[in-house]
Amino acid sequence: MVQNRVNFKIDVADDYEIMSLRAAEKIIKQVKNKPESLLCLAAGSTPTGTLKYLVEASRRNEVDFSQCFFVGLDEFVGLSWEDVGSCYHYVSEHFFRPLNISHDRIHFFKANNGNLKEECDETDSYILEHGGIDVLLLGVGVNGHLGLNEPFVSLDLNSHVIKLSDSTKVVGQKYFNQEKKLEQGITIGLKQVLESKTVVLIANGAVKREAMAALVIGTVDEKFPVSCLNLHENCFVYLDKEANPER
Q: In whole angstroms, what separates CA 45 from the centre of its chain?
């Protein structure tokens, strides 16, 4: 456990919608400052509201995402882009398709590729070629994971394949119509998370309170990957009141 000062700024909203709107506003501000930003957008139930507000703002011509580039955060190994429940399918349905984002501006893991090392290497290269991730939108797992960086993962990894924790295997089932065998994930690493220029972390619901408590203590605890954000110099945390560990 490494002691460190708390660098991030916390915004606690009364409810999920307000939390989502405020997170979207932070992302919009960053994209306005750099229209060709490389964005990394998390999939899952928590980001849905934030992506909705980003799409609505774009349709009102308040922000333009057409010049941005996009890199995937993570994926369950074995899934294709077409699989309902995959991270790519989620972000496509909630963001890429509504805004007609050009496919040549999108790079996501192909988690059904037989050569997953190649997928990791290509993602690492894509991030480097674009000068690093400008804005990273993250949710947090019940066990404190970021992307699919599970507890006790090294802070020194770039993109990698990882064995899923039991809790992630269970929680992950909610994205599928029938039970899926989830054993491994492919994800950008915590090194790339910490190298991102701006991190926007969102968390809602009482089930996330323990993970958020591990973050706000101000230490880096390998049991809770989210706590590594104490090392980030430009991290913004948006919670609803249910996720607030000081509630």
A: 11
Spell out the residues 6+ positions from residue 110 whose beta carbon is closer than 8 angstroms to its own.
80, 81, 119
Is residue 201 within 8 Å of 138, Cβ to Cβ? yes
| Chain segment 203-236, per-residue pLDDT in tens | 999 999 999 999 998 899 999 999 999 999 999 9
Task: Give a yes or no: residue 209 inside a domain.
Answer: yes
Beta strands in the chain (DSSP E): 2-3, 9-13, 38-41, 69-71, 74-76, 106-107, 135-138, 160-163, 184-187, 198-203, 219-220, 235-240
- Residues with Cβ within 8 Å of 178's Cβ and at least 6 positions away in sequence, in order, are none
Tell me the backbone φ, ψ of residue 43, rounded to 5 degrees: -100, 170
Tokens (6 digits) for 131: 């000068």
**Angstrom distance (rounded) from CA 175 to CA 239:** 22
Domain coverage including residue 19: 2-240
Instruction: Specify if 246 maps to a domain.
Output: no
Torsion of CA 192, 132, 125, 99, to 10 degrees: 100
Q: Does this model's pTM top 0.90? A: yes
CA–CA distance, 108 with 92 (Å, rounded to integer): 11
Residues assigned a catalytic role: 74, 143, 145, 150
Q: Read off the CATH number of the domain in which 120 is found.
A: 3.40.50.1360
